[in-house]
Amino acid sequence: MAYWVWIPLVFGLVALTLSVVGLVFGLMAVPTINEKLGMVCILVPVLVPIVCLLNYRKTKYASNFFLGSLAAVLLAGVSAVLVL
Fold first, then answer.
1. Please, are residues 8 and 83 in contact by the beta-carbon 8 Å criterion?
2. Nearest Cα to 70, choosing from 16, 4, 10?
3. Which of 39, 57, 74 is nearest to 48 (CA)?
4. How far apart are the C-alpha atoms of 37 and 33, rounded to whole Å?
5. What sign results for the dihedral spanned by CA atoms 58, 25, 8, 50?
């Protein structure tokens, strides 16, 4: 029965991995939208997901990683509630 505890942890690690990959791709994609905005996002990385999702057509690849990480966080929360 202890193996059920690993399910939320795995979803959490998947979410972390997807968000880090999305952050890297986002940091490369944001300066192509606007050079000044790219510098701001490099200094404040928390803005990268917001900028990428607001400019979905231009940053589709990075935005998909962020959306995938949100889905994994949702699954981690639901599975944690069900397991615990």
1. yes
2. 16
3. 39
4. 8
5. negative
Tell me the pTM: 0.85
Distances (CA, A) of 40 to 21, 33, 51, 73: 19, 12, 11, 27
Is residue 59 within 8 Å of residue 30, measured between CB atoms? Answer: yes
- The DSSP code for 45 is T
> Tens place of pLDDT for every residue, the chain, 84 residues?
577 888 898 999 999 999 999 999 999 999 988 889 889 998 999 999 999 999 999 999 999 999 999 999 999 999 989 887
